Amino acid sequence: xxxxxxxxxxxxxxxxxxxxxxxxxxxxxxxxxxxxxxxxxxxxxxxxxxxxxxxxxxxxxxxxxxxxxxxxxxxxxxxxxxxxxxxxxxxxxxxxxxxxxxxxxxxxxxx
Length: 111
Hints:
This protein has 111 residues and is α/β, with parallel strands linked by helices. It has a single domain (2-103), classed as Transcription Regulator spoIIAA, CATH 3.30.750.24. Helix content is 39%, strand content 32%. It is built from three helices and five strands. The protein has helices at 28-43, 62-78, 89-98, and strands at 2-4, 9-14, 17-26, 49-60, 81-85. Strands 1-2-3-4-5 form a five-stranded mixed beta sheet. Strand 1 (2-4) and strand 2 form a beta hairpin. Helix 1 packs parallel to helix 2. The protein starts with a strand and ends in a 13-residue tail after the last helix.
């Protein structure tokens, strides 16, 4: 199953695993399409794992970070395994500066 999103998001599903790929800017204006799509992905019947891939992001603001924190809480409450692929280093740094990098289930960078 593939669900085309906006220019910012594409959600695909393979069995019980959904993958949400974000691209471009994850700011307040993008949240109106990204947040509902992520909520649908984690709530969809049969989804036991959700990967949110931030590798295509060029920017994230506090609104985007807040949505990811809420998504992590929602996934945990539903028993869904959430994994987040980190953003490029300059974007990922925002999570470090905000002090939330360890609060989210980021995959480890490839060695």
